[in-house]
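Ticket #4471: complex job returned nothing on first submit. Input attached below:
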Amino acid sequence: MSNILEIKNLSVSYGGIEAIKGISFDVEEGKIVTLIGSNGAGKSSTLRSIAGIVKAKHGEVLFEGKNILGMSPDQIVKHGVTLVPEGRHVFPNLTVLENLKIGAYLRKDNIADDLEYVYSLFPRLKERSWQLAGTLSGGEQQMLAVGRALMARPKLVMMDEPSLGLAPIVVQGIFDIIRQINKEGITVLLIEQNANMALKVADSAFVMQTGEITLSGTGAELLANEEVKEAYLGKKK
Amino acid sequence: MNLTIDHILAGISAGGQYALIAIGYTMVYGILRLINFAHGDVFMASGLIIVYLTTAMPLQYAIPVVIIATVFIGFLIERAAYKPLRSAPRMSVMISAIGVSYLIQNLALYITGGLPQTYPAIPWISDSVELFGAVTKRVTVVTPVLTLVLVVALVVLIRYTKIGMAMRAVSKDFETSQLMGIKINKVISTTFIIGSFLAAIGSLLYFSSYQSVTPTSGAMPGLKAFVAAVFGGIGSIPGAVVGAFVIGICENIIKSSTEFSIFSDAFTFALLIIVLCVRPTGIFGEKTTDKV
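Support reply: We reran it on our side without changes. The output follows.
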């Protein structure tokens, strides 16, 4: 399998402070790849610069071999990369159905099949399709945010902390969906503070610390790694 | 008191004119959280442009040209004075808006030499008609009807079209809208275009009832429309329309009384103070129910 995404020497800084210090990593097509690390490690900045929301200082982001760094967010969506933002950010003043439709904003073809697909993943959303998204529970909003990101028919979905603030049972449900959409061919780049959950589903994983990648390996390797265990899984040596 | 059907009709008509201006304020506020102080002056500029246009071309061409010119001015102001400040603090954009307002007023002063310009009489709508026993210009009747038609069209656009959905999304969250592939600058430009278009129509109706345009003609109707937008709940289109009609009708009722007629403007601004004290979100202002 080839790499769908290659990050080369990516740097991002905010007002002179370097948040990402020249990181490089690859995402293999059809896999689940995770970046784990504590608050402020630069995980979100990495995803946001891939999505075109944050301007990078230098580096390259090759998506299917083409540099997408510096493109506008809408061009990046058009290429097939979507981001589920941290904190869900559904549009509270739009209905559930409208939130899904807006996920397909750039598409001009028929989206009926995709709606059915998202509703089959999250039957709860179908029941609530006419409800304003602001009235949904946190878990339902996360489902909606994931469903919305799928409506653009992406090849790569990036997820920023999908487990944030959700009950364990809901988190389990979200991770089951991540596995399922991945089986259906969508590559997933996941960042998480819930390292345990993330490493269990990930094919490969990278640990980020203060803007740099300090460790990498398969999910299982990092789960067994002593440093990771101590720092992120809360286990004493 | 000598309240007659005249005053009520004039009130409804004034309400329609304020409503067409107020929508521009409320839509821009809804998306950018900006009070576009230049909006009243765009309205005035639209009135002046047609004065000069009619010296060069017949009215049936001048009307569409002035509408296009006004829309273009609104678009240009946003691109030149607000867009470069997109990530600046909100205060900077507001100061820029005040600057644009003075720029337009002074340009108008320079061009007109400060003399009131006679507004061309638009046939048919300037004709006199008799209604419920009162004689009035036809524009008095046309204004509220046209206003309501345009408002309904606008509400349909915002509720049922793709660009309308994008406008609602952008008004809540710039960044997430971008993640959906929405070009926010295009949506913001569309908002200014719609606002200026309605101001141009409002200008045609307003100046047809008042007959002359001066460089400060936009200030008072602009302020009153702004009060209407705040009264209705700034950001809400139905709110702006209801607010505008309330203000237009109340003003003209006050004008009908011999003792209090000079207080009609004071009433409007007293209303602003009361609304800001008692219910700052206005009648239709949104309660924030967002989940964190």
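The longest helix of chain A spans residues 168-183. Closing as resolved unless it happens again.
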